[in-house]
Amino acid sequence: MLDVKTTYKSFENYAQFISTTDYDEIRELSQELEGLRVLHINATAYGGGVAEILHTLVPLMQDIGLKVEWKVIEGTQEFFEFTKRMHNALQGKEDNLTEADRNLFYEITKKNSDVVFNDYDVIVIHDPQPVALPKFVDNRGSVKLVWRCHIDTSTPNQQFINFIDSFMDYYDAGIFTLKRYAGQLKVKRLYEIPPSIDPLSDKNRELTDEELKEAINKLKIDPSKPVITQVSRFDPWKDPKGVVDVYRSLKVKYPDLQLLLIGSMATDDPEGWEIYEDLLRYVGMDYDIRVLSNLNGIGNIEVNAAQKISQVVLQKSLREGFALTVSEALWKGTPVVGGNVGGIPLQIEHENNGYLVNNIEEAIRYTDNLLADADLRKRMGLEGKEIVRSKFLITRHLKDYLKLFRDMVK
Ligand code: UDP
């Protein structure tokens, strides 16, 4: 297992985003929990929502007085191919769990079992990749184990969910984005904690004019013409081709329209390359579509700029855990047209701060509404920012975790 280093963050800087009641509550909880030894374990330090959150949550927990570490498991290409299949199957995809799959999963988990559970008071294990660790770690001591699942496992493939369920007995609690995501899993204590964004990160902070200009140059778009954007891992559930279809249909009415498809390659997601190549073929020779990724130097500031300057952000997922990208766009005052799945309806109130869509036709119609009406965009943008401020900032997330830790150790 590898240690992940994070950069220092001061909780004081976040006071500006929260009420004094929330501020005081966090300070009281942190006093109560001072010195608590916490370990987060997940599968990747970069790419995807979980890593994104831990890069802020871990330093903030440290700053308020907890002793927090973050480790990632090490796996082979074959292992991550399997865990990606598992991810898809847990979201409902047909698949067959073989004896060889189980053996591979156990073999790699065992190789990562060089962690001393007894050194910590609480360990939070994120998602299915490291879920089996407790099976192989001796000397558990009095540590409390929490499994944080970011996937909607309520309509899963039965073989895979049974497999995951076979580990639930090791855990003292489970956290899901929505309680109902746990479905049939036998979780001892079930917590509902939605994800959140960091308003001060490069991804979400206010950019200077200079930064914005530079980022637009890197994105190679013309900001005087309309832009629609989707930011997502290259993954079929995010429906990037559907987004291209929406763009193509609207291009007839808005000949200047540009489409930005920004996707990252996560180290634990080998499927990404295939989807990326396939998407390039689908896009073909249309130079008003730009398919960009971290491999073209598109980092947090460029993603920030794209979400900020777009007239509409799309998140046309077919299945989704939460979709941080929705909160990220809303925080910048950009309305979002999002799939009516997973955590997206938590963030989009239909016709208030964006639109929830069930198919391409609806996505076309509502994106068109927004492209045609600057006042509507502005009004929805303001509503969206307010929803994120009240529900989906990292400060709320931090408070939820502290409360859970208190429950675990009292
Ligand atoms: N992301 C990014 N660059 C990309 C694609 C995604 O920085 O090219 C980030 C995105 O901004 C968000 C996270 O990765 O913070 C994706 O989280 P989300 O919950 O939307 O989806 P997940 O990848 O966890 O399914």
From TrEMBL:
SUPFAM superfamilies, alphabetized: UDP-Glycosyltransferase/glycogen phosphorylase
Keywords: Carbohydrate metabolism, Glucose metabolism, Glycosyltransferase, Transferase
Segments forming a coiled coil: none
Any Pfam family hit: Glycos_transf_1
Stretches assigned to the Trehalose synthase N-terminal domain: 40-182
Domain Glycosyl transferase family, chain residue ranges per copy: 214-385
InterPro entries, alphabetized: Glyco_trans_1, Trehalose_Metab_GTase, TreT_GT1
GO molecular function: glycosyltransferase activity
BP GO annotations: glucose metabolic process
PANTHER family, sorted: SYNTHASE (CCG-9), PUTATIVE (AFU_ORTHOLOGUE AFUA_3G12100)-RELATED
Family classification: Belongs to the glycosyltransferase group 1 family. Glycosyltransferase 4 subfamily.
Subunit structure: Homodimer.
Name of this protein: Glycosyl transferase family 1
Originating species: Kosmotoga pacifica
